[in-house]
Design goal:
heterodimer, A: alpha/beta, 5-stranded parallel beta sheet, 7 helices, 9 strands, B: alpha+beta, 11-stranded mixed beta sheet, two-stranded antiparallel ribbon, 15 helices, 13 strands
């Protein structure tokens, strides 16, 4: 399994966000987890990334347990196994695209150096923007850049949190296609967590998230 | 992480530049004060070494010491030549060296004295020989370097102790000839042109053992007599001699033979003669004491300025870390440890402080160089812009510490940030 959640429960301020939630992904699988605002999508992403600790249940990434670890070990597991793509938080603002990818590569201990960074930038059609600052990129370009950043360390699992919500239809299609292609090329599993219904037609494995859905899944 | 800190700095050059400038001004102020206090103090101490007492005309004792030991003020007047012999005969006097001031060459004072002056400063002839005959001079090391004069070079002195382009009065009839150049001594001697007392009298047309005028502070000098310098009318000479006072000198530098002289001689001279005796050590201490309180006040101001700069840097970094909370959260998600993100902010504060501090030190030395060339007094004090003091390293260290502390408080927040909450807010 590239991702496994078993009977995960999480409460925030006394309110149950996830209750007995189980979910699994095979290596290389692409899944869409869809739910309305407040359904616990972001909480789920944070739990999988080790930024939050579940009240109960287990979470494992590529066979390594995320639960029961200290903060530093969780950071390390996330760094080695997971690539994250957010809706708006895409790149470090002070660095240009190349600088961002080089930094990400260094942080994850990735290999390939500048050649891989340049290859990835070209692959995502951003060759002409290699030295542009994040604020100089269009929405579509910035989202592609975020994908490049997430892919640089060749993670086992790519999690895209609302990757298309801010994009028009054409860009949405481009981004989701690119995500799937890049994940396939990298051999990574892809989990898209979103409320964007437009993505249902682009990913074969679609699962609902929310209180009712969670109960149904259980 | 240093590269990232640098990138953040480049991303907001105005804020970084202003904060560095603020710290740089504080550092420059502190370095200038340190340099001035140290170099002037050392200079005063070095110039007065070996001179226990200065004897000259009545007036300000500080002025007498400044003019005769440090050569940065006008003399108080002249004294009869006979006082030199009287002092030399005193059993408490080990050495008495005459000084006859009055002229300059390109702003460098021409000092009439004897070989005792060179001994007093421990001076060594680097080229040529000591002056022996009238009109022969030896040049201090700075004079030779700055005028480019060499051995055999002849020049004409100008009346007065400082260059006066509008009122230049050359002694064309009596040129000096350079016969020696002194090795650097690090004292006022480096900026003097030394000749015999007799040469000074000759320049002013006063035959030895003849009259002297009463020009205050300008030994044996009367420009009203210039037209008469080369007259050969015996009748006229006799008439002048009949009215002539004894030849005069400007001051006498005294070294005691024994400690008892220090107790007796100044009081004796001040009370029982028409002369004045001043101790360079006491006058220098008095002067530095006066400057000292001003310097301390300015130093306090400098440190307050540095603290203000630190506060400004703190505010800038505090705002910056708040503004880039999303960036910092992203860095953590990308795999940066909290320590690494903390270090980035710390490095940023340190780099800004380093730019300010190094810039401030450079600014201070540039200001010293500019002041030395613009103000003759600074130049005469021998303040060197190229000299770096150990205290500057302490100021640099203090500035870097201010940068570190200013950055540490915003940086510590990194450890308290709830990453999930920040991501929810920014993603």
């Amino acid at each position: 399994m590239s991702l496994s959640l078993q009977h995960v429960a999480f409460r925030y301020a006394g309110r149950p966000i996830l209750d007995d939630f189980s979910f699994a992904m095979e290596p290389g699988e692409h899944s869409l987890l869809i739910g309305a605002s407040g359904s616990g999508k972001s909480t789920l992403v944070n739990l999988v990334c080790g930024l939050l600790t579940p009240d109960s249940g287990t979470i494992a990434i590529a066979g390594e347990s995320m639960t029961g670890l200290g903060p530093a070990q969780r950071d390390d597991l996330r760094r080695r196994r997971i690539g994250l793509v957010f809706q708006t938080l895409r790149l470090v603002s002070a660095l240009d695209l190349t600088g961002n990818l080089l930094l990400a590569q260094r942080l994850v201990g990735g290999t390939g150096g500048r050649d891989r960074v340049a290859m990835l930038i070209e692959r995502l059609g951003l060759g002409h923007r290699a030295h542009a600052l994040p604020r100089q990129l269009s929405q579509g370009e910035a989202q592609r850049a975020a994908i490049a950043r997430a892919l640089i360390g060749q993670p086992d699992l790519i999690i895209a949190d609302e990757p298309t919500s801010a994009l028009d239809h054409a860009n949405m299609e481009k981004v989701v296609t690119l995500l799937r292609e890049c994940a396939r090329e990298a051999g990574s599993s892809l989990l898209i967590v979103t409320h964007d219904d437009r993505l249902r037609d682009h990913v074969a494995s679609v699962r609902e998230i929310g209180p009712m859905a969670a109960q149904a899944a259980a | 992480m240093i590269r990232l800190a640098w990138a953040y700095m480049r991303d907001r050059p105005l804020t970084v530049g202003l904060n560095a400038l603020l710290l740089g001004i504080a550092v420059a102020t502190l370095v200038l004060l340190l340099q001035f206090a140290t170099q002037a103090g050392e200079r005063f101490e070095r110039d007065a070494r070996g001179i226990d007492l200065v004897v000259g005309a009545k007036g300000s004792p500080l002025q007498l010491v400044l003019s005769s030991v440090y050569h940065i003020d006008q003399p108080t007047g002249n004294i009869p030549l006979g006082e030199l012999a009287r002092l030399r005969a005193d059993p408490g006097v080990g050495k008495a060296v005459p000084l006859a001031l009055g002229d300059n060459f390109k702003g460098f004072r021409i000092v009439g004295s004897d070989s005792g002056l060179l001994d007093l400063y421990g001076a060594r002839i680097a080229q040529g020989r000591a002056f022996a005959r009238p009109s022969e001079v030896v040049l201090g090391a700075d004079v030779a370097r700055r005028t480019g004069a060499g051995l055999g070079q002849k020049f004409v002195g100008s009346h007065g102790l400082e260059t006066d382009p509008d009122g230049e009065q050359g002694h064309d009839h009596a040129p000096f000839e350079t016969v020696g150049i002194l090795a650097p001594t690090g004292t006022a001697l480096d900026r003097l042109i030394i000749t015999s007392v007799e040469s000074v009298w000759d320049v002013h047309g006063i035959a030895h053992d003849e009259h002297d005028d009463d020009h205050e502070g300008e030994a044996g000098h009367d420009h009203a007599d210039h037209d008469d310098h080369d007259h050969d009318s015996q009748h006229h000479d006799e008439a002048l001699q009949a009215e002539a006072p004894q030849p005069e000198i400007t001051a006498i530098l005294v070294r005691y033979r024994n400690a008892a002289a220090a107790m007796r001689l100044p009081t004796q001279i001040n009370r029982q003669t028409a002369l004045q005796a001043a101790a360079p050590a006491a006058e220098a201490a008095r002067l530095l004491g006066l400057f000292g309180s001003v310097i301390e006040g300015a130093r306090l101001f400098g440190w307050l300025l540095a603290l203000s700069a630190g506060l400004s840097l703190f505010v800038a970094l505090w705002s910056a870390t708040r503004a880039r909370a999303g960036d910092l959260a992203l860095l953590r998600v990308m795999g940066a440890t909290p320590g690494a993100v903390f270090g980035t902010i710390l490095v940023e504060g340190l780099l800004i402080a380093a730019i300010g501090a190094v810039g401030g030190i450079a600014l201070a030395h540039a200001a010293m160089a500019a002041a030395s060339s613009a103000f003759p007094t600074i130049s005469e004090l021998g303040i060197s812009a190229l000299r770096f003091l150990p205290g500057e390293a302490l100021i640099l260290g203090a500035a870097l510490t201010i940068g570190l502390v200013a950055a540490a408080i915003p940086a510590i927040r990194i450890f308290r940030v709830d990453l999930a909450e920040t991501l929810a807010k920014y993603s």
